[in-house]
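Take a look at this chain, tokens included, and explain the fold to me:
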Amino acid sequence: MQLPRIFHPAAALLFSTLSLTATAAAAAPWCSGDCNADESVEIWEIVRGIAISLDTPDAAACAAADRNLDASVTIDELMLSVNRALDGCPGDTTAFATAIAGDFSGGGFSAVDLDQRSALFAADEAHPATTDSVPRSAAGLVLVVNRFGANSITARDPRDDYSTLWECSTGIGSNPQDVVVIDANKAYASLLSEADLLIFDPSPSADCSDFEIGRIDLSSLADEDGIPEMTQMALDQGLLYVALQKLTNFVASGPGAIAIIDTDTDELVDSWDLTGANPFAATKGLTVIDGGLYVPQIGAFGVEDGGLERIDLADGSSQGFLIDEQTLGGDLNDFAILDSSTGYAVVGLADFTSMVVGFDPSTGELGETLIGAGANISDIEINDRGELFVADRGAVSGVRVFDAVNGSELTSDPIDTGLPPFQLLFLR
């Protein structure tokens, strides 16, 4: 592409880790300068980055331009944006995996090279993690949400051997579930055990004294216990969507809900009731694909009463369950969608094992079984290469890779991550 001439000193100096396969907006690894996360960098996005670098008043935010989340955009970062405009956004290169011992006595993290399909390093004492952690990507960093018992968020830098940049508490007993980063100065964390959505600074000082910058009260959407049990989130067009489980003594008290937050004003602007109860399944964040919000609902554990619901973000209308648990044959524990006709689900069974099956999102029909009953699967994800990665915690644990188009397995043996893999995240 040909870039126009931009008459500004900064510009002069500058130039001397899906249609329906798009990844979730809340979880997508950012391409440098890709302000709207559409996997391309346009002229307006470069201009926005320049405006931020010059501290232009009222400059619109673009977290993707600020790769290190230091609340400024440097010439080096602007040049990265231009390179992405010229050469395109890079594809997935690495799978980051949190891992947990089979007896939950310890945790760690590992990384898998996508080209070689081998571990770059194992989850061990040199790469520690808590025993209930899920990873997210934000502006080139890995944010690890340390959930039950740990109550904190850790930022790791993949460019520096995944070193810890900071780790801050979300509050004693808060049990954080998900994070969504808006820009270098603002992010959100859903807290399962509290009524407030946490607003935090993703570039905090070393002592975390400036980490918490606000809260949004969601108690108006709670059930009788006053806690809405917020879990996964997604960001789309300036609106934050937050899934609410609405539990009392760990049992769903009725249908779940989606809280809708205006990220400019930090106000609760609307809410939608869900078709089913307990939007617990999938720890990848809510999924946004082609203008639709996909919300998995597990209902009551061991009862086939849930399914995968699609909500049209344009008007809030629901298509109901695209596929239900009766069709799947068990609890919907997780899902991943390749395109309009190909999806996969982790199905929890009555004996506490699981299996992986295919399904057609457009018809709700069940497809082939990739991994049969008796397995122990904790996560599935599809990368931009059309590969389905499976976190298998079975007797021979590791990461298994399948061709998401035809379902054939690409690994002869599971990729050893040291400890059994728990949650997966693709990096560029």
Observations:
- The chain is about 10% helix and 40% strand.
